[in-house]
Amino acid sequence: MLSCKKEHKDKLRIAVAANLQFAIKELADDFSQRSGVECEIIISSSGKLTAQIIEGAPFDLLLSADMKYPQELYNRKFTLFQPDIYAYGNLILWTLHEDVEPELETLLSEQITHIAIGNPKTAPYGVSAMEVLRKFGIEEAVQKKLVYGESIAQTNQFIISRSVDLGFTSKSVVMSSQMKDRGQWSEIDKDLYSPMAQGMVVLKSRKSFESKAIQFRDYVLSSEGKEILHKFGYDMKH
């Protein structure tokens, strides 16, 4: 019977910030086709993934939504190299309610009672959204309306299920084929938040996978990888 069992092929384990949940599938599939290396994707908030790595989770790479967490891992000697910026993220307001205008002014309306936002403690897109509310001068006015998702994926869930009126998320979500024609969204003025440089690091956890992890890093930074990221609404330069 044992000989009938398929040999278990260990996969490259890639920890990925939730804003990349759709783009990473296309990146990993294209990389696997080109290299023959299979990938396993673990999606969560950048902060949670970093905590898991520090606790010894056997991940080979981290693709974060910011530079802070990759830099922290580098400083603590968990990585092979310094972090690489692989893309710049863009923030949007998104709603699935037809009668809601996804604009910052709308957030002050009495009709709006729940606004989804990533938890700024673990989700970098939540940090940027709070920066927008502060710069726009409405942070205090909308504070009681905020509903925190522990990652952008959970924030999206709140928006998609209509359990909130609208929410802040990554442009990459509405550029995906799964979400393209759902609801309405508007891009947030980039002057209202700091550039969202997203960092990637190759981790030291599994020696036998280091060369494959470097191969994946190089692929993401290549013109093929950048083309996919650009298609999902990421900027390559600030």
Could you walk me through the main structural features you see in this protein, from its secondary elements to its overall organization?
With 238 residues, this protein is an alpha/beta fold. The model is unreliable at 1-8 (pLDDT under 50). The chain has a five-stranded mixed sheet, sandwiched between helices. A five-stranded mixed sheet has the order 7-6-8-5-9. The N and C termini lie far apart (57 Å). It is 34% helix and 21% strand. β1, α1 and β2 form a beta-alpha-beta unit. The protein is globular. It contains nine helices and ten strands.
Describe this structure in a few short sentences:
The protein is of the alpha/beta class.
Taking pLDDT < 50 over at least 5 consecutive residues as the criterion, the unreliable ranges are 1-8
Question: What is the makeup of the main sheet?
Answer: 5 strands, mixed
Strand order of the largest sheet: 2-1-3-10-4
Strand content: 15-25%
Number of strands: 10
Give me the Rg, rounded. 19 Å
Order of helices and strands: EHEHEHEEEHHEHEHEEHH
Count of helical regions: 9
Helix content range of the residues, please? 25-40%
The CA-CA distance between the termini, in Å, is 57 Å
Summing up helix and strand content along with how strands pair, one would put the structural category as: alpha/beta
The average pLDDT value, as a whole number, equals: 94
| 3D shape | globular
